[in-house]
Design brief:
The structure holds two protein chains of two kinds. By secondary structure, chain A is an alpha+beta fold. Chain A has five helices and three strands; from the N terminus they run αβββαααα. In chain A, strands 1-2-3 form a three-stranded antiparallel beta sheet, with helices on one face. In chain B, 50% of the residues are buried. Helices cover 39% and strands 17% of the residues of chain B. Classes of the chains: A alpha+beta, B alpha/beta.
């Protein structure tokens, strides 16, 4: 039987790409989803206006963890401005805007079919905005 | 009888197993609300015939609900729901709570019967104490006795039935014990009213709050009952029109209960719907329905326990028709989404009882199936099959 989620997301949830602490982080944020108690802790290391490392620690469902893993993969090498634009692109895609690029974002956008789960998908992405904002600096 | 249950999703009826969240409405309730909106006139105000008829019908519902609860009509306040009723109790009793006093709740409480008391304790310098529960979701009687002896509370606020686990608390015994040490006993009856007979005299509590929408009535309407001595002591929560005896620019004389607590225009049509819901529930064969619901509960529990990796919370004793469970290695939300795709509606998460989930070490919460009189064994079988598939997909 076919599962309810895209295979790419299942793969990321099964074998997360950048999971764990990041002691050298310069930025970070912790967010939670009051509906289910999911928790997200995102760590970033910025060097000269470039994200050189991104890791996450999460307690949550497949969507929450898989989406965080996909995000961290997209972040490495991005500028804060480009990273912020990624979050807005995901929001627009979840609102229904057609998207192809980057491909993993287009896969996440398929989850617009599950509107009740939107916050599971976006928790890591909201954490990214928080981490890049005034409260996110760690050093 | 229930129009929603005639609807089909993907060529089959939705198995609606989220009744602890809200129930479907029977036709007589819908008809009563439609009648209420078919001719609008305010209550307690007009001298003309429509308003007088609206007031008669409104007060008729108050008397009907009061009789159903074994109470007096002037002890019965219409509210916006259980949360509103518990906030009314909390604000109304504010001056009764002094620095160093204690308010006792159980670890099972819904946030609605926790957050207001937590706030009141902060405001008044009082202490919020929490009665522990055992692994099956039951209050430990010895711990309760010891708490009353060593830390007698000013207020005891407890659920009649837990929304998260379905556990039924021994309210009559607890109320009798707590009142003997001088506590006021406030009961959150949101989950109980659809499943248990409620006689406030027999329960022996001081106040009881519930919502219409969990007992086949409309949302946005509820009931707060309290002994008239307590209502006299309580401050009004909201102030304005309809709750006054007389008003000048210098001073206001507040009307006695129930008007004292009912400022503003009430949800007139909704209250007629509440009356129809009480008629509906009162006209049911309660014993037959309790038997039917416990069959659904037992089949669900035994079916789930046979699926490897599934853990059912609670042991089925003193339990309403609510089954909370987890699937090892699978987040409740992921189980919920698979069930949704198979046309089975359940609740997943921490059910507005986050501290309870923490106490039971259920970090991601649980999946909760909750039944009502219209659910069928066939729907339980669909639930069980869908849980098996969720497990094979994710675990």
């Amino acid at each position: 039987m076919k599962g309810p989620y895209p295979e790419l997301l299942m793969d990321h949830a099964r074998t997360p790409r950048h999971e764990g602490p990041l002691p050298s982080a310069t930025h970070g944020a912790r967010l939670s989803n009051p509906l289910c108690g999911d928790r997200m802790h995102l760590h970033l290391r910025l060097e000269e206006e470039t994200i050189v490392a991104a890791r996450f620690e999460a307690r949550g469902c497949v969507l929450c963890r898989g989406s965080a893993s996909i995000l961290t993969e997209l972040l490495v090498g991005a500028s804060p401005a480009a990273a912020t634009e990624l979050v807005h692109a995901l929001e627009r895609a979840l609102d229904g805007e057609a998207t192809k690029d980057p491909p993993s974002l287009a896969v996440l956008a398929e989850l617009r079919e599950l509107p009740g789960r939107r916050r599971c998908v976006t928790l890591a992405w909201e954490s990214l905005l928080e981490a890049l904002g005034p409260k996110g600096r760690r050093t | 009888m229930f129009p929603a249950l005639q609807e089909f999703v993907n060529e089959r009826a939705l198995a609606y197993l989220d009744n602890a969240s809200t129930t479907q409405k029977p036709q007589p309730v819908i008809d009563a609300i439609v009648r209420g909106y078919s001719r609008s006139a305010n209550v307690h105000r007009g001298v003309y015939a429509w308003s007088a008829a609206a007031t008669m019908a409104h007060e008729g519902v108050r008397a009907r609900v009061a009789a159903w609860l074994g109470a007096q009509p002037n002890e019965l306040i219409f509210t916006a729901g259980t949360t509103d009723g518990l906030n009314l109790a909390c604000h109304g009793l504010r001056n009764l709570v002094r620095t160093g006093d204690r308010i006792l709740i159980s670890a099972l409480e819904h946030h609605a019967n926790l957050v207001p008391w937590q706030w009141l304790c902060g405001e008044r310098g009082a202490e919020l104490r929490v009665l522990p529960i055992d692994g099956a979701g039951r209050v430990r009687r010895a711990a309760f006795e010891s708490e009353l002896r060593h830390h007698p509370p000013r207020i005891l606020a407890i659920s009649h039935m837990s929304n998260a686990l379905g556990s039924i608390l021994p309210v009559a015994w607890m109320a009798e014990r707590a009142r003997s040490v001088g506590a006021k006993v406030i009961v959150d009856g949101a989950q109980a009213v659809a499943h248990l007979p409620v006689d406030v005299g027999a329960l022996g509590c001081d106040a009881y709050a519930f919502s219409a929408h969990k007992m086949f009535g409309p949302d946005g309407v509820g009931v707060f009952w309290a002994r008239s001595e307590l209502l006299d002591e309580m401050q009004p929560f909201r102030r304005g029109g309809d709750m006054i005896e007389s008003v000048s620019f210098q001073d206001t004389v507040v009307a006695p209960a129930p008007a004292k607590f009912e400022a503003g225009t009430p949800p007139i049509a909704g209250i007629l719907g509440l009356g129809a819901a009480v008629d509906f529930v009162d006209g049911l064969d309660r014993e037959g329905i309790a038997e039917h619901e416990s069959r659904l509960l037992e089949r669900t529990r035994s079916g789930l326990e046979r699926i490897p990796g599934v853990r059912v919370i609670g042991d089925g004793e003193d339990q309403g028709p609510v089954v909370s469970f987890i699937v090892d290695g699978v987040h409740p939300h992921d189980v919920g989404t698979v069930l949704d795709r198979e046309g089975v509606a359940v609740r997943a998460g921490h059910h507005c009882a986050e501290p309870l989930m923490d106490a039971l070490k259920l970090e991601g919460g649980t999946v909760r199936a909750s039944f009502a009189l219209y659910n069928r064994l066939e729907e339980v079988e669909r639930l069980l099959g869908a849980v098996e598939r969720a497990r094979s997909l994710f675990a």
